[in-house]
């Protein structure tokens, strides 16, 4: 391959598997910078519950696409692609290697395979869907989405009202599901020499790490962080409060469940989410899978990729 080919490395996998640690290791070794591919870490102030990189980690390696928007903003896959491309250009300008790191499968798909050329917003239709969500509940709309586009429904989850409404809007306008539209897309990064590294662990080990991380979040003050965000005016129905770390804390603050119940339910939800992520990523083309603990094999793969 041409030695001047543009390099791009992606590190993906389920939550808790160790993507950030691997990315920092690789960035140090090959002069890289990290572009976060996490739909919740873009929100300012939501730090503990999104497991955002620490200040020390950010000082050690430059990170991009963190703390971009206020909680009330809906950050989309299109926004991610635009911001990621800008970060890639910036990193390349510094003669560094961009490392796309995260577990938001929809964002990775949008970057590598393109955004679908579907219809724009239909104000009247969207208003009707919003009214249906208000009167009948988001669960009813989600059930309809499961019927017309089960793949996308599994990806976004049943509480993501904004994306549920958008998916149903597209279906009603075109009579085709979003996943079918995704087949008619063009990569946002054509011409790059791309390596996709998937990290995995044995299920019990992954679950153990997930539980340790959840416990750590609560010890570090997740409940207090949530209280402060609400006090500062973050709307309770804002997108980042859908993140796994906040859902049950909000219920605890309303005295609907105990703190111990919030911890256990967060662990359960996070395990289920990790399972959905692996199902999604297993269907992603071109991923080379490694044990998250096998740093030697991961390093060798990157070295071979950069030399090819």
Please characterize this protein's 3D structure.
The mean pLDDT is 93. Helix 3 crosses helix 4 (105-113), helix 5 packs across helix 8 and helix 6 crosses helix 7 (150-156). The radius of gyration is 20 Å and the shape is globular. It is of the alpha/beta class and 308 residues long. The chain has a 6-stranded parallel beta sheet, with helices on both faces. The chain folds into 2 domains: 6-115 and 185-307, 3-Layer(aba) Sandwich (Rossmann fold), CATH 3.40.50.300; 123-183, Histone, subunit A, CATH 1.10.20. The chain has helices at residues 19-30, 55-60, 77-93, 105-113, 123-136, 138-148, 150-156, 161-174, 178-181, 203-219, 222-231, 244-253, 259-282, 295-307; strands at residues 6-12, 32-36, 63-64, 97-101, 192-200, 287-291. Strand 2, helix 2 (55-60) and strand 3 (63-64) form a beta-alpha-beta unit. The chain has 14 helices and 6 strands.
Explain briefly what this protein structure is.
It is built from 14 helices and six strands. It is α/β, with parallel strands linked by helices. It has two domains: 6-115 and 185-307, Rossmann fold (3-Layer(aba) Sandwich); 123-183, Histone, subunit A (Orthogonal Bundle), CATH 1.10.20.140.
Low-confidence stretches: none
Fill in the CATH topology of the largest domain. Answer: Rossmann fold
Number of structural units classed as domains: 2
Q: Helix/strand-derived class?
A: alpha/beta
Helix content: 40-55%
Strands, helices and their partners?
Elements: E1 6-12, H1 19-30, E2 32-36, H2 55-60, E3 63-64, H3 77-93, E4 97-101, H4 105-113, H5 123-136, H6 138-148, H7 150-156, H8 161-174, H9 178-181, E5 192-200, H10 203-219, H11 222-231, H12 244-253, H13 259-282, E6 287-291, H14 295-307
Parallel strand pairs: 1-4, 1-5, 2-3, 2-4, 5-6
Helix pairs in contact: 3-4, 5-6, 5-8, 6-7, 6-8, 10-13, 11-12, 12-13
